[in-house]
Amino acid sequence: MPVRRALIEKRPWLVASIAAALLFYYLRLTSFPEFWLVPVKGAPMALLAAYAWHRHDSRDARHLAGALALASLADMAIEFTLLAGGILFFAYHLAMIALYLRHQRDRLAPSQKLFVAALLILTPIVAFLLPEDRSMGVQTGLYALPLAGMAAGAWASRFSRYQVGIGAVLFVISDLLIFAELGPLSGSPVPNAAIWPTYFLGQFLIATGIIQALRKADPAHKH
User: Fold this and answer.
1) How far apart are alpha carbons 133 and 114 in whole angstroms?
2) Which residue pairs, CB below 8 angstroms and at least 24 apart, start in 76-82?
């Protein structure tokens, strides 16, 4: 109980984000009006953005908050049109790539270089191959280019691979599951059950991992 109370008192934005994510996951399976479900879907990333904004007042924390706000808008926009959601997520990936480039590791082990290369090369290829419709495959493959760059940048950054790196890979998996619905997993219950948890957990790990690293490196800017 004391641990839970401390979490609520010190990390209210995180607790609210988790609650909103669980609420959306439940409500989407009910007859809850779709129009009102849209802001519920956008709330988890908006609350993570608020967490980033309030936990550290550095340029990088503000940058992260802005990127998460873009993800929140993308989560809502995609309910109306895939194109609008895709453009906003494209912008999110570019924003995160810029952030990771400012925090690149000086050196990478050969195995890490290989994994970064695999993310960059295989993510767009798999995204292209998953949809049955080749024209759709071209679109998903193009979208996956910044997605791959985001994940590779996270893995090659100085941020924790166990949080930020894995979070970025989970983001990739969630998007590949979306593309798989257009092909081999069409009609399968797996994507519907796994996409949202994988996406939210990935974003949660990214946000908390980056903020923890920033607070450790620059305590003077802690809130």
Assistant:
1) 31
2) 76/38, 76/39, 76/41, 76/42, 79/34, 79/37, 79/38, 79/41, 80/38
- 3-state secondary structure (DSSP) of residue 145: helix
* This prediction's pTM: 0.92
H helix runs in 28-109, sequence order? 34-55, 59-77, 82-101
- Estimate the crossing angle of helix 2-10 against helix 12-27, to 10 degrees: 100
Q: Report the percentage of the chain scoring pLDDT > 70.
A: 94
- CA dist., res. 49 & res. 111, Å (int): 33
Q: What angle do CA 165, 116, 204 make, to 5 degrees?
A: 15
| Helices of type H across the chain | 2-10, 12-27, 34-55, 59-77, 82-101, 110-129, 134-156, 166-180, 189-217
